[in-house]
Design brief:
The structure is a homodimer of 207-residue chains. Chain A is mainly α. Helix content of chain A is 64%, strand content 0%. The structure holds a DNA duplex (30 and 30 nucleotides).
DNA sequence: TTAAGATCCGACCGGTCGTGCTAATATCTC
DNA sequence: GAGATATTAGCACGACCGGTCGGATCTTAA
């Protein structure tokens, strides 16, 4: 690995940490350059623009997510246990990758939802790919008899992401000490492992 | 209403719209002043700082939310129907208030989760208050026999917010045309009104 | 060893940011 | 209508933004 690739990696590592703390809009050149002991123009030798830096940072974070959250599933039993593992690691992310702050992808959702450009496109594709991973895990769970036949993987993935998002809000923002147990309860209900009497909230109301 | 109060209202209306489009970090003085035909210092006569402007904007948005989403529940039948109404209007917000873009509160969650200060505090209190409203609606639903006795209002509110957050992601960011139907499905499952065979996903798996 | 090329710095550009101040103007009260 | 007050414009400051450029310094391969 040449010197260029080495410093590029150093920059990207610091950039991902910065993005976890301040989002992709917080990826300002001067502070980032200071963090790695360089100058702004030094960064520009590696990335030609701020947008390119954002995309590269997103890519680097995605690789980290892949190795820390998704890949370990290969070592777990196929079907629902694998889904359990991914969801559990997803809840810890990005902390379990040694990163400070919160998930940068969720920050990107807010920062790029009205804007457009390559960063947004890349982020959408990232979410779509991960969603597909979840859907395959669900389908596998159905095949193994862990989940009810006919389970809609798209609907399941939608609700799974909802739980992760709510955890981000309750734990990260509201600092609710009950966040984790509530998210786990909801996950248990989603996967049909809640006590039967808690599986649904309503009793007799029909609109 | 004096002239001061009138222009202050004009500014805040424009500020809420701006916050819907670009969040509270996007509340920059010059563009906002241009939008209402004033200069930056004109705004400064009304709010003494950017932070105060953000707080006032948050307050104004909260009042709008109260009147457009929460208050109409008074006209609905107590219990679950009232919860249906609030959730339905919440999904439309802020569009049903004539505002462009997305919910500014969700943007604030990302922008102020690591930061601290009066804006964050106000936003936390806002969410806590609304969560309490939801919990009371749930408790009322239990009393009316619409929801299973013993339903945990806190857990229910946690999952309800999860659905709204997922809708924000799927509809607003991912532009998923199936977002609405999936959110409604999930709401039906949460309130126990999904077809029984869809109420839970798992069949026999026990970890 | 040496020269080509990669790498990085320092200075600088045009803009925009939030924040102050003064002066002039509009509005309200008496 | 006069005086007090509230409101707004105009202007300037320092800090920071993304981006550019020439040249110094270091790697690397011949």
């Amino acid at each position: 690995m040449g010197k260029g690739a080495r410093t590029r990696a150093t920059i990207l590592t610091a950039a991902v940490e910065t993005a976890c703390l301040g989002g992709f809009d917080g990826l300002n050149l001067k502070p980032l350059a200071d963090r790695v002991g360089m100058t702004k123009s030094g960064l520009y030798a590696h990335f030609g623009s701020k947008e390119a830096l954002q995309v590269a940072t997103l890519e680097h974070a995605a690789e980290l997510f892949q190795t820390r959250v998704v890949a370990p599933a290969k070592l777990e039993a196929a079907g629902l246990p694998r889904l359990d593992g991914v969801f559990g690691r997803w809840l810890d992310w990005p902390g379990n990758a040694g990163l400070p702050g919160n998930c940068p992808f969720f920050a990107g959702v807010v920062e790029f939802d009205d804007a457009q450009g390559p960063v947004r496109e890349r982020l959408v594709r990232l979410f779509r790919d991960f969603r597909q991973v979840v859907e395959q895990l669900v389908a596998s769970g159905v095949r193994h008899g862990h989940l009810r036949p006919g389970t809609d993987p798209g609907q399941f993935a939608h609700e799974l992401l909802a739980l992760r998002y709510a955890h981000h809000w309750a734990h990260g923002f509201m600092r609710d000490p009950q966040a984790l147990v509530r998210t786990r309860n909801a996950f248990a209900r989603l996967t049909g492992r809640a006590p039967p009497e808690l599986a649904a909230a309503a009793t007799r109301y029909r609109p």
